[in-house]
C-alpha cells in the first residue's frame, strides 16, 4: 500500500534534485573511495580504515551500551526507585524461610558449625 506512494515520492525527489544540479557537475565523485569518514559513523559498511578509528568506533559503542546498562541497573536494580516492591518482599520471605530451615537442621545436628556459619553469613548479608 505504501510502496507506490514511496516510489512516487522518491522519483519526484530524484527528478527535482537532477533539475536543480548544475549540468557540469557529476552526481558522484570520480573516485568512489573519496567520502566523508563520518557518513556511516559508528556503524559503517566495514572496517577499511586505520586501527585507531576502528577502536574508537568500538569503544564508543561499548561505552554507550555500558551507560545504558548502568542506568537501567540504577533504576531497576536492588533498592532502585523504579523496582517493584513485591520482588524484594518475595526475596526477603524466601531468605527467612531458608534461614529458619537452616536453624532447624542445625538444631537437629544435620549441619556442622562451619556449614551453619557459612550458610548463615550467606543468607544474612
End-to-end Cα distance = 60 Å
Counting DSSP H or I runs of 4 or more residues, the number of helices is 4
State the major sheet: none
Beta strands, count: 0
Structural class: mainly alpha
The global form is elongated
Mean pLDDT: 79
Search tags:
mainly alpha, 125 residues
Structure description:
The chain is mostly helical. It has helices at 2-20, 51-76, 85-107, 113-124. The longest helix has 26 residues, at 51-76. The relative contact order is 0.04.
Please write out the topology:
Layout lengths: L1 H19 L30 H26 L8 H23 L5 H12 L1
In a nutshell, what does this entry contain?
The protein is mostly helical. It is 64% helix and 0% strand. The radius of gyration is 31 Å and the shape is elongated.
Amino acid at each position: 500500500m505504501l510502496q507506490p506512494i514511496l516510489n512516487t515520492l522518491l522519483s519526484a525527489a530524484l527528478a527535482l534534485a537532477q533539475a536543480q544540479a548544475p549540468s557540469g557537475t557529476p552526481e558522484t565523485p570520480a573516485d568512489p573511495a573519496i567520502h566523508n569518514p563520518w557518513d556511516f559513523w559508528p556503524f559503517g559498511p566495514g572496517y577499511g580504515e586505520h586501527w585507531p578509528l576502528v577502536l574508537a568506533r568500538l569503544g564508543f559503542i561499548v561505552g554507550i551500551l555500558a551507560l545504558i546498562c548502568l542506568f537501567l541497573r540504577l533504576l531497576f536494580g536492588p533498592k532502585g526507585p523504579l523496582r517493584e516492591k513485591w520482588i524484594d518482599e518475595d526475596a526477603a520471605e524466601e531468605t527467612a524461610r531458608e534461614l529458619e530451615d537452616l536453624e532447624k537442621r542445625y538444631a537437629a545436628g544435620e549441619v556442622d558449625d562451619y556449614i551453619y556459619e557459612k550458610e548463615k553469613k550467606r543468607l544474612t548479608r
